[in-house]
């Protein structure tokens, strides 16, 4: 008769707990803020940005409406998380601003569609709309950059 072997329960790999994840998210947000830079650092010829944002569901209901004023020392954090039915969508307004400011464009209006996967139907996209209006003010200079 073989000797009795003790059964040893296998432990799963240790994963970070809720508090560790929360601290990591906070550190990531702080790092993101410092890497984003301020309006003055990234675009010294721009005095301010005004953003009018409206997030709308595919059915037409307004989820969020916001007016932002960004001046000199404010961090340039312009990527907007989707408030629709996906939970992970992101509207990349930083790209829009990076296209318009170097050419000294004063006004840009547009719309973005969320491409996140819908909670309601995993085979469908979220399609929440972000309607934006960005107005830039520039410092007066004798020659254009």
Would you spell out the secondary-structure blueprint of this structure?
Layout: H1 18-36, H2 39-42, E1 46-56, E2 62-71, E3 79-81, E4 90-92, H3 93-100, E5 107-113, E6 129-138
Antiparallel strand pairs: 1-2, 1-6, 3-4, 5-6
Characterise this structure.
The chain is an alpha+beta fold and 145 residues long. The chain has one domain (18-138). The chain has helices at residues 18-36, 39-42, 93-100; strands at 46-56, 62-71, 79-81, 90-92, 107-113, 129-138. The strands form 2 sheets. A 4-stranded antiparallel beta sheet has the order 2-1-6-5, covered by helices on one side. A two-stranded antiparallel sheet has the order 3-4. Strand 3 and strand 4 form a beta hairpin.
Distance between the termini: 89 Å
- Count up the helices: 3
Helix content: 10-25%
Structural class: alpha+beta
Helix and strand sequence: HHEEEEHEE
Approximate shape: elongated
Poorly predicted residue ranges: none
Strand element count: 6
Largest sheet: 4 strands, antiparallel
What is the alpha-carbon Rg in Å?
Answer: 23 Å
**Count of structural domains:** 1
What do the pLDDT scores average to?
A: 85
Instruction: Give the amount of beta strand, in percent.
Output: 25-35%
Strands side by side in the biggest sheet: 2-1-6-5
Summarize the structure.
With 145 residues, the chain is of the alpha+beta class.
Observed structural traits:
145 residues, four-stranded antiparallel β-sheet, two-stranded antiparallel ribbon, 6 strands
């Amino acid at each position: 008769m073989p000797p009795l072997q003790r059964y040893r329960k296998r432990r799963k790999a240790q994963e970070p707990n809720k508090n560790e994840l929360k601290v990591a998210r906070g550190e990531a947000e702080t790092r993101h803020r410092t890497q984003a830079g301020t309006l003055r650092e990234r675009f010294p010829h721009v005095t301010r940005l005004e953003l009018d944002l409206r997030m709308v569901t595919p059915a037409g209901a307004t989820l969020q409406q916001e007016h932002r004023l960004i001046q000199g020392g404010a961090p340039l954090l312009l990527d907007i998380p989707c408030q629709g039915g996906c939970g992970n969508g992101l509207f990349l307004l930083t790209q829009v601003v990076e296209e318009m400011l170097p050419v000294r464009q004063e006004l840009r209006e547009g719309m973005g569609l969320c491409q996140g996967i819908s909670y309601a139907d995993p085979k469908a996209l979220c399609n929440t709309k972000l309607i934006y209006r960005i107005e830039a003010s520039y410092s007066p200079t004798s020659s254009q950059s």
